[in-house]
């Protein structure tokens, strides 16, 4: 068995070179300093688009908290500041264009979102694998990766629909992914994707400056804890409207149920169910030692790109805490959900017998599985090619031990009869199956 180094991996030299280039550019006045301030960013978005309507201004409060947390806690390097500035600019311009589309095509907001199928599980618990299996069934609607990066079409999209020009958003997504590979190729080993791959709706929550994506990207604990105390319903209402916009841009039937998933739902189930009251819920479960180790590794591999001051022990402690909170919130929210609206699926069951497990899910959804099997087989085949190297990690890299995780989450294992993964796999985290 290949051993894993005691310390988490370093980032590539690409970011070090980019940091030097940005510092040099600032020294001679060729690169402007980062201005991560709310009013400046809002004004820039208005100037860039010529639009003024941001929709529900609720997003400004989480934005203020996030920006303050970035300035005081994240300790971003120059590349991190550059990336953060561009991210805020992109999100704010998209918010303005969202309202422009709604005014231009008011029928978008009348599109129903009926009985969505929502996969709910901790980070790294098999949600991506299950989401992509279901997304291979053409009877469902799903987001593609370029649509979670850029859910809002650019003005002139009618020409794309008419076949007169190409949609720029997949091109932009491919460029972003190329930069991500240069910055840290492990991030795409951990979560393999491509512009057209089925993807979660976390980017639609980011449109409201909401969600764990920020916490997995930057060290922003004050922001994270602030969000944990807020009602997320406004962010979910905006997410639903963005789904309507994406469905319209896909020209897909509103009768097709959406397949949704993001670990954020573990924290926000009351808001999710307020906005999607007829949702059908698939809860995924995995050995929490694997969940915590893999989540910490994912967060580390992203955060280390943007900051030169990331503490692996702090990352481990935070994602153990965050995983525990996700599970506590999920367990509390389930008490109000009718049993016939939810089903539990174990990571180990998908590993052992994906066909049998999917058959049980399709019975829950009251659908015939046979029409979907060719698409699912194609996905299984393609995912093996897409993920050629396993994601390797250990709890010890982040100052944690299996005993610590067991002490805090052992009752979760017992309540849901979760299979504890074998000693070899526990030590390496070398699961080839997609998380």
From TrEMBL:
EC numbers: 2.8.2.-
Entry protein name: Sulfotransferase
Record InterPro entries: P-loop_NTPase, Stf3_sulfotransferase
PANTHER family the record matches: OMEGA-HYDROXY-BETA-DIHYDROMENAQUINONE-9 SULFOTRANSFERASE STF3, PAPS-DEPENDENT SULFOTRANSFERASE STF3
Xref: Gene3D superfamilies: P-loop containing nucleotide triphosphate hydrolases (3.40.50.300)
GO MF: transferase activity
Keywords: Transferase
Recorded coiled-coil stretches: none
